[in-house]
Structure formats: C-alpha cells, structure tokens
C-alpha cells in the first residue's frame, strides 16, 4: 500500500482543477483513499490523512467520518498527532455529538502533561469548544492551572475559566480564590486575560462586582504605568503601549465605576489623562479614546469630564476615517438622552453626516438628528431632514417620514408650517408614508380649522399632478370631500385663491376612482368624498350617477358603500344633509401619531415597530355607515351618544340641537351626554306585556300638532308592568287634498327620559282624512318629571319637501306621573 | 467576545474559519455564505462595520484576503480592527512577507498561530514576540520535520 500523498501535494493537485466537477472528482477519490486508510487503522499516516480531510472540509466537502480519527490522534503520544487532532476536534466536532465527551479524559491527561505546549493545546481546545459537561468535569484542572506560576499556562487558564463560567455560571465561585493575585503579574498576557476574567465575573454577579471594587486603585495604577511607560517594542502599536490591555482595563473600570461614587471619583483623573493625552492620528489611539468616552459616559463622572467626552465625539465626527465617524454617531445616540445640550452643540456636524455616502453613517445620523430636534431648531432641522427625505434611498424613506411627522407634531411653530411640512412629505415620499399616518394627518387637518381652505387648495393642486402616491391621494380625497365647498368658493387667505369648478373637483375624484394606480382603500376614500360633496355641491345628478354605477362594483367594499349611498339618495334623502355635515373637531387623546423610531442597532433588519393603540379617529366613511346603521330599518330616533365636543354647533347638526335646549338640569351642553335610544329588543320584554290598563285608559288624548293640514293626535296608555313607562300612540291625519308621502315622525325628549319609537303603520298620510298613520312611542320616565317633547316632521307634499319642528308641552299629568 | 473569525478571498473562497461558539455545520456554512456575500458587496468607501442580526461585523481587506470578525454588542469595533491587524502582523512575522498562498498551503499553521493569539474569542497574548516564539517552539516539538517545514516549496 503506497504512502498516502502529502498534504501539500494534495492542495497543489486540487488547485489545478479547472472546473468544480473536476475538483469534486479528485476529492472523492482522495476521500475514498483516506477512508480505507482509516479502516486499516493506519497509525503512521493518520495525521497526514486527517490534515488532508481538514483541508477538504474547508472547501466545503463533508468530513464527518474523520471525527473519531481526531479522537485517536488526540490520544496519541506524538505531539504532531495531538496538534492536528485537537485542531480537527475544534473544526469537526461540536457539542451535539456524543463523541466529544470521549475527549474529556484525553484533555484531562493532557492538562497534566509535563510539556507546557501539550497543556496549552488542551487548554485551548477546552476554552474554544468545551461543552457544559466537559467544563464541569475539568473545571478543577483549570482552576489548578490558574494558580500556576507558569505565565504561559496561566493566561490560557484564565481564558479557559472565562469559557467555563460562560457555559456553567454556577462554577464561578470556584475561581474566586485564584483571582487574588492575578493583577500582581508583570506579564501582559496574564494581566490581559485576568482583566477579561474579572470583567466576566463582575458582569455576571453583583456580589463579585462589589467584591472587586477594591481593585480600582490597582487598575488605575496599571493603566497609568502603561501610559507613562517608555517604549516597549513587543507591546507597542504606533507609539501606544499595549492598547489591548488599556482598552480592557477601561472596560472593567466602566463596570466597576457604574453607579458608585467612590470608584468613579478614583478613576476621574486617569480618564481625563487618557482622554487628553492619547495620540489620535491612528486608529489605535481612537480605539482607546472611544472606550474612554464610553466609560466616562457610563460612570458618575463630573460634568467637566462629560463635556470633554462629548467634545471628543464631536472631533470624531470630523475625522476622515469613516469607522471613527460611525462609532461617534453610535455613541452620541447613546448619550443624547442624558446629555442633550452637549450633543446639541454638534448638531450641524451631525446634520452634515446625512449627506455621507455610507449607508450605516446615514442611518445613524438620521436617528440622531431626530433626537436633536427641539422647539428652537425645528425649522432649520426640518429643512435638512426634508432634503434628506428627498435624496435618500428608499430603505430610509418610511422611517424618515414617520420621524418628520412626529417631530412636526411636537414642535410645529405654526399650523401653516405644520400643514406645509406634511404636504412636502406627502409629495416627496408619498408612497413610503406609513398607513397609520393617514388618519392622524386627517385629524390634524380637521383640527386646524382656519387652515381648511388653504389645505384643501394645496392638496387639490398636488393631486392634479400625481395620483400615484396612495397616502397623499387618500388625504386629498378626504379633504376634497369635506371641504370641497371651500375649494370651489375660491376663498383662501393664505394663498392666491385658484379657480376650481365643481366639475373639476369631481373629475379629479372620479379619476382616482377609475385609475389603476388607486388601491381599494383609496377608492373607498374617493367614493365617500364624492358622496359628501352631494350636500356641498349643486351638481347632485352627476354624483348620483357615479354612486349608482358603483352599486355593481366587483369590489365588495365599494359596492356596499355605493348601495348605501344610493339608499341615502332614495329613501333617506331628508337625512342626507345632516349625515354628511362637516366633521366635528376630533378629540385628541394621547399621541396616536406616527410611531417612534426606536434607536436600535438594526440596519440590515428593520427597527422594531412598537405600534401604540390604533388611532381612535374613526374612518370618516365608516362613521357615515354607523349613522346609517343606527337609522337602519327602524325609525328609531337617531340620537347618537357621543361625548359632546367643545363646539356642539358643529357636531351632528340639527338632530342634536333638538335636545340641547331641552336639557332640564341647565348644565351646559358640553358636559351632558345625550340620552341614548334603546335598541328595539331591550324593551321587548315590556312590549309583550299587556300595555293596557283599563283604569289608566282614562288618560285623555291630546292634539300635539296641527298645521298646514297635518294633524297629529296623541293617545296614552300606561304600562302595567312598569309604572315609569308611558305608551303614546300618535295618529297622523291629513286634511288636505293631496297625500303626504315619505312621512317621517321624529321625537326627542329631555335627558332624564328615554324614548323609543316603534315602526309606523305607513309612510303615507292619505289626503282628505282617508286614513291615519299611527306610530307607537314608549317613554320611560324614572324620575317622574313632567313630560315634554320636541317633534320633527318631514314629508313630501305637492311635490315639495316639508319639514317642521314643534314642541309638545301640554301632556296630561296622568300620562307621566 | 469574538463569535467567529473568517478569512476569505475576493472570489469568496474560504481560507480560514475559526468559531468560538458551538454551531451546527449547516448553520456555519450558511453564515459563511452570508458573510461572504455581505462583505464582498460593500464598496471600498463604506465603513468597516456592518450590523448583522444582533452582532457587529467588522471586516478589513488585506491584499486579496478579507478578514471578517463578528463581535458582540459591548465589544470595541475599532479595537477589533487592531486585533485583525495584529494577526496579520503575526502571520507576517512567522511566514516572512506572508501572502495568500502561504495561508492556503499552510492553513494548519495559520490556525496554530491564531490559537496562540486568541482563545475563546478573546486576546490571550498581547506581545508580538511571544506569540511567534511559542508557535516556533511548538514546531520544534514536532517529530517529523519533513512534513512540516517552515516554508515548503510549492
């Protein structure tokens, strides 16, 4: 059996392969040879074969059949074998395989070997890939080696202990005695690994942290020696002595000084010294400064030192080196909350970083810029940020837009500026704006009453140019529907008024409806807007036509809306104006505005969106639907229970006014909730009871209304089951020659009462007293107050629509007492 | 702590992989692929730090090789650049004017040097001289010299 080819030979051969297939063939051939060699238990060449296997493994080929061979190599007496065996173990074995436990014994023996390099290799393997079980078994050995005087082994044992603690935290206590004199070492390797070990212990256990605080003076001294010491060739990096050790000490000082006044004070001087004396021309100096700044910001340092730290970061921002600019921005982001004013001083530099070419830097600069916006600088900052929004990559646009909305909401100097800013965002990055911003913007616009005409004009102009950006189109459609009358009337204080006709507005909205660019939601907005214009514009026929077309739309949502709006034209035309009135000012609860941009490290991953409760502004179209639902089939009094807004006059129009005056308690309108009408079924229990009481039947009837030929009489009954309920039956009769069609009777009562209207017998009051329309009203009067009622009558008579209001006060006492 | 250190060529060929946390083979291969794609896609004007998952990836190019390390959140990125630079210096001292071919043909030596410099994701020796000295003394312990000459002819 010829000797297997040498490692270098194999590498050379494989590299001559010209195609992947050729390489695969060579490797398969060699693998087969190696496998048979393993089967033959060839001791001489095992090492060579495993080395070759490791090379092939690095190229991406499977090598699991070599795992056991690695173990055999580790068990061998030859150092060459052990070296390759341990290397193979680190590359091919992992905790998942049970075989790795077989290593434990070998490692244990090697940890006690007479040659330090064997011990070293064993420690290295244990420290890199030791599983929890292995760590438990071998922790004692590691602890022993931690106390040895051999610095070569001591430093390795220290890092091995770190690994053991990471795997099995409970074993931490075990290493405590050995840490006693660790910092007394002169050897830098041991010092460095000891500091790492101490850091790990302090991070994991507050008790350890308290215990090791006493080391602060010693650490400060070591650091001082490093800085002051002369040139040491073996540790020098560009004129700085052992930067690795300096950084680790600074990191440990950070942990020890955090939240502790005494320790922080003890390290104040050395931190100031490092901060001022470190050479900043090379990366290594900046690495130390960076760590120093992080430490200063975390401990209880005096304010002078903190300002020094922020200034260092400010200088970093001006550095040519991108990495340094990047870490500066990251650190400033961490400190902006606590040291806001100091960071503000560097605002202009930060804003310049928005123009950097590097993606990571741009993102950090953007997050930091948003954190720095305040009442004083909002105008300037917004200009920069809007410019950034325009120029930046799409991945930033959504976050930037949300950030601008948030900042604008918090710090807007004037309403007009706020609206202008929103307009700019919508037109610049309209498609990237988040969906939840649309309702918030609408609320904002509604609440800026004096800006309505200006806003709708600007939105109209924007949409004329471009209807591809959905959020922009949605907001514009809503505004046009709501304020279309202002747009057409041409009044606008803020800007040159433009000439817009009703047809032009309807053209735009219809354009949105039919366009392929519009999403279903946008179409819904447009349709509702068109419907709303029916009460604001005079070209009702055109609107009727549009609405009826969409009654057969494939989109179910559009279809439903159109059908309901159609019904509004036909059956409920008298309610249309009331339903489609101007929106009231919406209550603003908490910031249901665009969600915060969280300052995370995420770049490849999007920041976590922590969406707060959904905005409590109802969709305007769905509000219309709600109103319709209330009116549904029953002619129940459309009394809507709302928290009365500050301007009751603008809310709901006439219907609520019916009740405003009747409020008996004299409490001002805003405080009073309006009595809610019970849905039919609530009182069903009562209605099934015999309503008539012969004795109570003696209540005399009365004429409630008699005008223009329409006469309405009331007859009364009292309920047996509930003495608080009066049942009134209205009888409407028509003394004129012509029928009264679409007759609707509505009633409202003071708030201490509750009212329920059942269905009328008919909608037509035939003329010449040929018949009556009857309807039952139930009144609940728990406080036994005098019954008063205001009624509203609507009907069509001789082709024209008639509406009338009347008060009914002369109720017989027995009807309510 | 460093989670892993990868060396790969400009064509995406892996030259060294050191893992400091246990991961299944499939996961390792995937990470290597991701790193290679991500780093090679970066323009030379970008900064050397990338955020990936919950780690910071710090990379630097030396001639035809990319050195790519993954750090945890508290680690110092600028120092990681120094760590990688130190490793290149050590390789240079050991091999004498190291180039990619040295690392290809003597990959196991690159690992041995690395194991004298880093352990468990942390720096174990900050002296340039001592790392190379320990590696050379270990070499002398090896029984067959012909297999592992310091600078073999290619």
TrEMBL record, chain A:
It is found in: Cytoplasmic vesicle membrane; Endomembrane system; Golgi apparatus. Keywords: Cytoplasmic vesicle, Golgi apparatus, Membrane, Protein transport, Transport. The keyword Hydrolase does not apply. Residues 591-622 are annotated as: Disordered. The keyword Protein transport applies. One of its GO terms (biological process) is vesicle-mediated transport. Residues 697-812 form the GAE domain. PROSITE patterns: GAE. Coiled coil: none annotated. It is a peripheral membrane protein. One of its GO terms (cellular component) is AP-1 adaptor complex. Belongs to the adaptor complexes large subunit family. This is AP-1 complex subunit gamma.
């Amino acid at each position: 059996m010829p000797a297997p080819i040498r490692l270098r030979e194999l590498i050379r051969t494989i590299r001559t392969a010209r195609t992947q297939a050729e390489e695969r063939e060579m490797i398969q051939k060699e693998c087969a040879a190696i496998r048979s060699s393993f089967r033959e238990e060839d001791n001489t060449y095992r090492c060579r074969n495993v080395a070759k296997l490791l090379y092939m493994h690095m190229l991406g080929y499977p090598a699991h059949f070599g795992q056991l061979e690695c173990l055999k190599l580790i068990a061998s007496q030859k150092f060459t074998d052990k070296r390759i065996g341990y290397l193979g173990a680190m590359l091919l074995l992992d905790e998942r395989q049970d075989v790795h436990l077989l290593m434990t014994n070998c490692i244990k023996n090697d940890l006690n070997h007479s040659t330090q390099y064997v011990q070293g290799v064993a420690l290295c393997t244990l420290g890199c890939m030791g599983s929890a079980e292995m760590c438990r078994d071998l922790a004692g050995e590691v602890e022993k080696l931690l106390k040895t005087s051999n610095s070569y082994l001591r430093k390795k044992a220290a890092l091995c202990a770190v690994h053991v603690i990471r795997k099995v935290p409970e074993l931490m206590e075990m290493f405590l005695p050995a840490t006693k004199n660790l910092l007394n070492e002169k050897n830098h390797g041991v010092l460095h690994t000891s500091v790492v070990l101490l850091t790990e212990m302090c991070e994991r256990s507050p008790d350890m942290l308290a215990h090791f605080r006493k080391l602060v003076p010693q650490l400060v001294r070591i650091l001082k020696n490093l800085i002051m010491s002369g040139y040491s060739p073996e540790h020098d990096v560009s004129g700085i002595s052992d930067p690795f050790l300096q950084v680790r000490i600074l990191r440990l000082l950070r942990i020890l000084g955090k939240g502790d006044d005494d320790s922080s004070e003890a390290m104040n001087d050395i931190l100031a010294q490092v901060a001022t004396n470190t050479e900043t021309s090379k990366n290594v100096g900046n690495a130390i400064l960076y760590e120093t700044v992080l430490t200063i910001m975390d401990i209880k340092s005096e304010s002078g030192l903190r300002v020094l730290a922020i200034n260092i970061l400010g200088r970093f921002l001006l550095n040519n080196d991108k990495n340094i600019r990047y870490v500066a921005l990251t650190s400033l982001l961490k400190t902006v909350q606590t040291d806001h004013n100091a960071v503000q001083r560097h605002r202009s530099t930060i804003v310049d970083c928005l123009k950097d070419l590097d993606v990571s830097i741009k993102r950090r600069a953007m997050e930091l810029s948003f954190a720095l916006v305040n009442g004083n600088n909002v105008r300037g900052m917004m200009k920069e940020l809007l410019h950034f929004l325009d120029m930046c990559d799409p991945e930033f646009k959504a976050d930037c837009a949300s950030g601008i909305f948030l900042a604008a909401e918090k710090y807007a100097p004037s309403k007009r500026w706020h609206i202008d800013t929103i307009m700019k965002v919508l037109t610049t990055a309209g498609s990237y704006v988040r969906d939840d911003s649309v309702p918030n913007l609408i609320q904002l616009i509604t609440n800026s009453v004096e800006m309505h005409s200006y806003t709708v004009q600007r939105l109209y102009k924007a949409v004329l140019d471009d209807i591809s950006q959905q959020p922009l189109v949605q907001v514009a459609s809503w505004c046009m529907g709501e304020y279309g009358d202002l747009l057409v009337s041409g009044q606008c204080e803020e800007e040159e008024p433009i000439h817009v006709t009703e047809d032009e507005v309807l053209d735009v909205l219809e354009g949105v409806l039919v366009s392929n660019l519009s999403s279903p939601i946008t179409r819904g907005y447009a349709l509702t807007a068109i419907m709303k214009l029916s009460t604001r514009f005079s070209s009702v026929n055109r609107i009727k036509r549009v609405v009826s077309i969409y009654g057969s739309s494939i989109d179910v949502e559009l279809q439903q809306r159109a059908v309901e709006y159609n019904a509004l034209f036909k059956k409920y035309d008298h309610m249309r104006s009331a339903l489609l009135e101007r929106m009231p000012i919406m209550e603003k609860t908490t910031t249901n505005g665009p969600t915060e941009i969280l300052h995370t490290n995420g770049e490849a991953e999007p920041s976590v969106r922590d969406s707060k409760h959904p905005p409590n502004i109802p969709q305007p179209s769905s509000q219309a639907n709600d109103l319709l639902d209330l009116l549904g089939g029953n002619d129940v009094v459309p009394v809507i229970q709302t928290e009365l807004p500050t301007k009751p006059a603008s809310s709901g129009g006439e219907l609520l006014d019916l009740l405003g005056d009747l409020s008996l308690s004299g409490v001002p309108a805003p405080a009073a909730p309006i009595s809610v009408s019970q849905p039919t079924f609530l009182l069903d229990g009562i209605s099934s009871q015999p309503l008539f009481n012969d004795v109570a039947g003696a209540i005399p009837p009365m004429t409630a209304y008699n005008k223009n030929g329409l006469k309405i009489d009331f007859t009364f009954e009292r309920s047996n089951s509930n003495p608080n309920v009066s049942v009134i039956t209205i009888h409407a009769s028509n003394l004129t020659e012509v029928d009264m069609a679409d007759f609707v009777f509505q009633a409202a009562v003071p708030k201490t009462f509750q009212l329920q209207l059942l269905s009328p017998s008919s909608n037509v009051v035939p003329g010449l007293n040929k018949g009556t329309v009857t309807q039952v009203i139930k009144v609940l009067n728990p406080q036994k107050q005098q019954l008063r009622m205001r009624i509203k009558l609507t009907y069509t008579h001789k082709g024209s629509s008639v509406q009338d209001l009347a008060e009914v006060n002369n109720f017989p006492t027995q009807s309510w007492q | 702590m460093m989670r892993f250190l990868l060396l790969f060529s400009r064509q995406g060929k892996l030259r060294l992989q050191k893992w400091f946390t246990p991961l299944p083979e499939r996961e390792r291969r995937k990470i290597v692929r991701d790193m290679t794609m991500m780093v090679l896609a970066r323009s030379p004007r970008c900064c050397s730090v990338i955020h990936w998952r919950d780690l910071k990836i710090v990379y630097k190019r030396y001639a035809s090789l990319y050195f790519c390390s993954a750090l945890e959140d508290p680690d110092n990125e600028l120092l990681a650049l120094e760590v990688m630079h130190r490793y290149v210096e050590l390789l240079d001292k050991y091999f004498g004017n190291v180039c990619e071919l040295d690392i290809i043909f003597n990959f196991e030596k690159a690992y041995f040097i690395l194991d004298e410099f880093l352990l468990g994701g942390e720096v174990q020796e900050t002296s340039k001289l001592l790392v190379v000295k320990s590696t050379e003394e270990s070499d002398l312990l090896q029984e067959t010299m012909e297999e592992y000459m310091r600078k073999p002819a290619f």
